[in-house]
Amino acid sequence: MGSYTGDTPVVIVGAGLAGLTTALALGTYGIQTVLIERRSESSQHPRADGFTARTVEIFRSFGIGPDILPETAPSFKTQRTRVMSLTGQWFEELAWNDQEKNEDTAIPKQPEWSPYQGSSTPQDQVEPILMQRVIDLGVDVRMGHELVGLAQNDKGVTVTIKNSKDGAVYFIKSSYLVAADGHRSAIRETLAIPRKGHGPVNSVQSVLFRAPELSPYLKKGFKQFTIDQPDLKAFMIAYQDERLVLHLPNDRVWNDELIQKAILQSIGPEKVTLEVLATSRWDMSAWIADEFSRGRVFLVGDAAHSLPPNRGGYGANTGIADGHNLAWKLAQVLQGVSDDRLLSSYQAERLPVAWLRHDQIFARSDYKTLQREASTSGSSALGQSALPDAAVEFGQIYRSSGVIGADESLPEALTPDLWKGQPGTRLPHCWIELGEESLSTLQLHSGDWVVLSEDPEWAGIVKQVQANLGVQAQFIHVQQSEDVSIRFSDAFGVSQRGCSLVRPDGHIAWKLAEVDGDPKAALEEAWKTVSCYKG
Where is this region: Disordered (predicted)? Predict the structure, then answer.
């Protein structure tokens, strides 16, 4: 049966972006965690090639600064062009989204939704950063260890682990298990959780290579290239460190000779020094698990939703947000603040997000031709119009026991300016004065419960509620200069005496637009409700 190695509050299986984000958050909250990863080291392939501003907001709240995860310049624009070959004929720039394609319906320059830009740092460079941070936080990371069995009851989960180095088998008992073990999740399969969605999209052979002579061609600003030749249809991505990835259709057996020929054909007439770094085959698919939790087991990332590559970055970024959403809830329950009913809000909030992003992928030009097929596979993508990127990235709403005032009559997503601080949506961005600094409301939020108001009397109220409930909270007295473009009262939809209660994941749990009656009683009752307060 193997040896017993002790108990731990949380075991995470899978050290990809979703698993690492969950571990990062739990480590920050001081929750003892074991992270299991069957690989002995991270993949060389870049995989996800960019992170949204919302993901940067999440990482900044956990101390991942710009020196570690740099942002793109405000003027940065990912560009795609159709070419015969990289050094040969260039045909045309391709529209990044449907709004760009049709100038008559193009949206005006977007307002300032976030204090941050996205990051173009590739996944293979981000994962080691996160890994080192979780190790520094005391997370027990076990590379080269694989889950080979699990059992759960109403008290906890027992996982059986195999060390691939020496074959030793051992087991760990935990209160909760987080499955971050990818789209072929063994944990999801063990639990027999079915999936729906478009299903298989394509199979791809990827080649990571370097060719220094191509640098002049990449300085034109284009990052992605559709290779369009009569006998070769491929897709190439250029990274800032001079690496390139060529995605080839998996319509043949790609041996080394054929791969080299395809690379040179995609590059064109320029003679280059070619260094092939790695190759891999992978399947594009679109699947959403019917359940994101079963008992004491929670699915995050690709284990919960497999989404094909797309221009909105809905794959990896969605998984990162899963871990961010789940971790604070696990922490509150394990620390005895909240009843375990709070954990049911994870599926209630994240499952609709996954479906909306699935359907938005197939409503956009990259995959629009597959819409009709998607409608027969459990998806509602057929006929759905593409929402603005800002609505999908910043403006999706959570409806659950963790929110007061977000009913089914509200739309699934809007741009942040239209929400006006609606409970269930992300904390709006606006600039406020703190001492001599001008900071965004999002830069002040660092994983605690937060109450914001322009009325300083809330400081004393928050202290009283904090003492009564034994919860950690921060009060922010909002003061703004006269010249700010976004007023707090407009962005948050509250009066000068009103307040907003923000959850540890940066979503608004409740707001008091106007003070009518006893504000302390109102805040205390709301806090108890949205936190499933154990008392």
Answer: 104-124
